[in-house]
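Study both lines:
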Amino acid sequence: MRTWNRPEKSLFIAFLIWSAAGLIFTLLRISPDTITHWPVPGWLRHFVDLCLRTGDPILIILAFSNTHLLAARQWPASLARRWGLIVLISSFGIETLGAYTGFPFGSYYYTDRFGPLLGLVPFTIPLAWHVVVTNSLFIVRAFVSHKSRLIEAAGTGLLCTIYDFILEPFATTVKSYWIWANDTIPLQNYAAWFILSGLLVGLFAPATSLRFPRDPRPIFILAITLLIFAVGRWAYAH
């Protein structure tokens, strides 16, 4: 693996530190309401409150930044930018359609708890799509090398679906980022994730011939965020 440059190192360290803080706050179930009773100066309570209210969008921004820098290292920068734009625009369009019509995921709507809304969709949602799909693709390419485009797309779709399966209870029950009709996650949501993420990779991902050395960041980014989801689900269930 080639040595990371300074921006890569700085952003990855920032991601790790912010994730560690998120794990602690999630495990201890610290909320803006609980800190009002802390025996600390007012400015510190305001600072913690700001971190709590903006923590999740900042985590996604850091994950997205690390993912894009990784993509720009593995592919030519122009291809990484093109891929990023395709994922961001496609996912925003798909999520807007879904919030309006209930297709293809099922009937749901977004709240503003995951960041400011762009129409019906938080600005963080397309960033999250890029993080999940791109890092899943990198993991498939690193561990299942030189396979057909179909296998690569199916493997990425499967990883994205597993990720969403673990995310959903935390995002809906604990955080209320989005609300499902009848408070029920439909099976078509997972089918849509598998198909759509697989199609993105199969149709638009830069060519599989552009191989790269294995890099730990895709596993770290997905595993750490999944750990936060799992810890949060466990903490708020007890």
The chain has one domain: 6-237. The helical segments are 6-27, 42-74, 77-101, 124-143, 149-174, 187-204, 217-237. The beta strands are 108-110, 117-118, 121-122, 178-180.
